[in-house]
């Protein structure tokens, strides 16, 4: 049995791996067949031990699940492209007898690699079983339907006329075969979904053809099927390649030809289907797409794409296509290459493409020369990715995917356009169109990229202009005699020369003028002087001819030029915070110097950018050499300077870097050419790169003596080779060139205090440091300190001398220090102030009306003042400033003070020869002594319980005291004489408000009582007690069986502490003096755990669980309950009100006996209310007498054994009547009475009288 089981498991594993695919064989599917894989898979998967395998899963699908190739058992749709694999998935189908064609479709996607990694689709006889690891080859009955790859999004493969006649009446096997080699490839691998196979009942037409295509017409034709459909045909015409569905409504057509109306210069796609009946139609069959011809444009032809596009776009299925849109433009909208349907001007560099955009233009008879202009930009890749422009006959139709070649009247205009990321203008004013004269010419813009690298963006075209000028353009534009404020431009006159001379347009931007642009100036000759110009500025200029009337030639661009700089002088500082004064040589380099805020240390800088300064980034695939420079006049006799700048650049090793040069002003760097060593050229430092954070370069002794008396040019040169690199390129900030001076500074001494002085002097603009020495006049030892140069552009330097002696004459000297050389010292003197620090104030010898004031320490060269006031009297309460005795005296007797009054005193000094007081000292507070007649201060309670209060007050020498107290609202006092200043009051009532006063007794005569001190006695509060954990050991049930009262039971779950004192049905009732009261505590214990139990009842209600109040104790054991009996003391507290009760505390502790008021780790604590009542005794009161109850009373006093007309009077403790009237319904409302003892007189109409005492709560 074990052997059979092992064999079965192995067999199932082999089936799963595809090693034994036909153990049971497939049951062929019948037609029609549809499989979307959302619920199950019925394909057999042949995988063997191949690395990449077919799996069925939900990682990808269109939509839901699918079958796909995976290298991780279906976790992803990825394949290992370094290991070869060949695997198959197949399904068998029963083909009905007599079948000829079938409709077959499926969805697919696959990356792969060209002709190496792909999926093939086969139909083979069911007798042929594919072999894992071996591709299917040609053979009897085997037909390859497709080879598919390089589409990462879902595609639909459809074959509407699959020939199945060879399988009619038998079984056909459909096979999807994935194959990959072991050398690269693009993810993902293949995925298959939505497989459909059916035998049509309505046969589709065939032989679709397009003929007689014109600008507005075209003839569509097809061959009728057999049998001919009874209801003719439907055709569907569209300008998109989206195929119609079965539900799409077509245009009915009875015959096999149709000539629809179409739009010029438009690509159309069309489909046709047979209509056998209203419900039976064939599948749609696609005809060949066609493009209508253009309606040729005339000359002049102008297209700026601002409102639309009239060029025909020939894109085919190329991944990079021409689009018209707004992703780029000069200024808005253009024609450009895009790989995302025009959203951006970008191309897929890994997929080759050849696409064309063209316009047909009628060339007048007799034409020879014409002018062609257009704006363009494209980076691309050297001689691989570029734009070409062609003039071809209209008989030549460009083919997407195929480059135009010379021959057959085809003329290439210019060369390969690329390597420029900014807009360029192409202008050819002598374009020979004689070969197209009297014909229609096709102007073609062709983009080509090779699929192996390249740099964004691809080409964009704007502002196309083709004309046959009647006014010839000037040529050979040049510029000369460039100065800081002027330049001379010149050109060669055309033939014939224009009768109106010339106009020129000058700009600081490279935006070309248009026909309506207002010229900057005009010239009757072939030269013009441009003035005034701005120094260190790049200019662009254009010139055009002025012929008869309004006839003007094209604007022709001249060479840009830059006016020289006005040399700056040393010191030279440039932090770029507000402007830039360096010139740039950028030429047509892709990576250029820019001034801006894309980077800076901290805000702005000059930096290399490939996007006009938006970012500090460079195109690593395009080589560039550009310069930023500044001319600087060097004074005669100059030798060393301090040169510094901040920089950062990543770049690439010894290929992409920054260099710094000092060159003669006669040497102008050339964009594209690196500076080399030569006469008078000095390289500063080495190559600066490999640092992407700001660095600082400093040379404190840079020798520029070779430029003394001349103008020197400082150059920052960026170079990159076009073969890779790391962002960012160079950025430069905070350039400084300084010549240090040791000239003696002019020093100002200011803000002199008692221990400091501020020194200020002009900062040497060459960056000198300073040394400072100072000392008290008359001493011989200098104190020294060094001060660094103030940072540029701070004009002054400053420092503060500290820790000086007060009231002392000092001398101070400062000298400049340059490169280790100290200059001549300055000299200044100053006097420090007296020490303004307020003195410490002490008060002594305090009497009832005077006090002795003392202050220290005493500051030299100063005198003191005092002021005082009664605390709380505000600013108006201050005395006048009182001059105090001169040093060395430091005491003053303050007299005339009030008895027992709190004062505050302040003292401040004033420097000699000054009139302003220094800071007052902190107030010193004191209180004059009191007399015996004054009420004792400090009356307070130090300890208060429900029944006691410990009272204290401030003593008075030789006095005794009387403390009196009473309940609030009671007229009489209780006096407590005392020989000490503390008294303990006892016998107080819980939760009762009292007031008390105390008085000194001197010589037998009481003085003045204190104001009443009101306090309320608290209620009983019990200590906190709980466990930390109670999950395993806790009190499960408490049962109290009183003697003579109801049983209380409480069953509960675990808790660390539970307060049941407010739960009325858990109240426990006991009788004062009773015995044999029983209590049982049931325990919940885990395992063999031990627990002890203790129970207390606070019988005397003093708030403490005393040891003699412990009614149950049980040592730690594993018994499930503890029980015992207890007696209630005869003097136990009797609960007379709803809120005055005693508490029973039950505690269970694991491995211990609970100790009162002590928490423990494991167990539980519970508190309960206990009401104790007196035992029942025979009634000693004559029940026929007039009786009142309850007593004490809160709201309503009941009266018993009276008639309906009884009267009452209520007296307070002072004998005053506080209430009287007729007793109604045997009740008297006393809620308005204040708390206290009262007497009630009752007189019945029957002659009975009674006098009772009661307590109002």
TrEMBL record:
Pfam families assigned: fn3 (PF00041), GEVED (PF20009), Por_Secre_tail (PF18962)
InterPro entries for this protein: ECM_Regulatory_Proteins, FN3_dom, FN3_sf, GEVED, Ig-like_fold, Secre_tail
Source organism, top-level taxon: Bacteria
SMART domains: FN3 (SM00060)
Secretion signal span: 1-25
Cross-referenced CDD domains: FN3
Domain named Fibronectin type-III: residues: 204-295, 473-566, 743-836, 837-931, 935-1020
Classification via PROSITE patterns: FN3 (PS50853)
The entry's keywords: Repeat, Signal
NCBIfam families in alphabetical order: Por_Secre_tail
Protein name (record): Por secretion system C-terminal sorting domain-containing protein
